[in-house]
């Protein structure tokens, strides 16, 4: 699959074709599944809790999960490479999120690091069944969201920080993260954006409309969080309406700086596959970059980081009492050119719609 050509086509105006079968919602892992159980005492990495807080489905259909996914199609599959210090014996396992079970695949190779490495791949058919040629950016964004969910789950379980691989170097796996066993003795206190287990189990994408402009301090903090999580690979700004509509970015002095005046939300609604509710959203956090001449590795890297950063920002927004919904479908969204820059250098890659009045009306999927 030529990812460069696929992204160019996904950014165009061609509509997807009719829906096709999505296929099985999980891989056909070999052999009987093994139940995941909490560890008997402190010390081992709790793989039961890690997966339950991040990837496990909450109902048998697999639609209701704590990880956002375009169309609630969940194309991301997880394989675990388990070393010493975990609640499972060392080995390689395939994970079934519908039944919350693992399937032993092979022994752990010599030299496997203590803890668990979660490798994430995608089954494109699940997403192409509805989005057709627009699927590939969404597949990468979904993978980034899954990484964010696993990272936040590890922190909620008081694990040491995970080591992420989002460099886009390979397409199988698309991404991975290594989670070491919990540290013995002193632990690092949780930060202000560290989600609790309750936060992670209850998070859902809010259903439109998402109205009400968030407080400037919240917007600044969410932009700063997204920029840090994105590791500098993307640009970030926020489109707001109200009495002083503008595009805003987080300045180095700790305040919001005006990038452009005027209400960008109607144009953003047209670019976001015609989702009219976006024109009335309280705010939209926008990740933009990934020029048209980007190679496959950079396309993967930028989209993975965008999904990861928006996943982190979405959870942080909900913790602040805001309504939040990820928006992944973007066509003709050349924000850089609209701001007077060179064309095809700064495309919208991903976004997070925010509001103050819809946090109590969750929906099962996201756009």
Task: Label this structure with key terms.
seven-stranded antiparallel sheet; 367 residues; alpha+beta; globular
Write the SSE topology:
Layout (H helix, E strand, L loop, with lengths): L2 H8 L23 E2 L11 H6 L23 E7 L8 E6 L4 E6 L9 E7 L1 H8 L3 H22 L6 E3 L9 E5 L17 H6 L2 E2 L9 H14 L5 E6 L5 E5 L5 E6 L3 H7 L11 E7 L6 H24 L3 E5 L7 H4 L8 E9 L6 E2 L4
Antiparallel strand pairs: 1-4, 2-3, 2-5, 3-4, 5-7, 6-7, 8-15, 9-10, 9-12, 10-11, 12-14, 13-14
Would you kindly provide a written description of the structure presented here, covering whatever features stand out?
This protein is of the alpha+beta class and 367 residues long. It has helices spanning 3-10, 47-52, 124-131, 135-156, 197-202, 216-229, 265-271, 296-319, 335-338; strands at 34-35, 76-82, 91-96, 101-106, 116-122, 163-165, 175-179, 205-206, 235-240, 246-250, 256-261, 283-289, 323-327, 347-355, 362-363. Strand 10 and strand 11 (256-261) form a beta hairpin. The model is unreliable at 358-367 (pLDDT under 50).
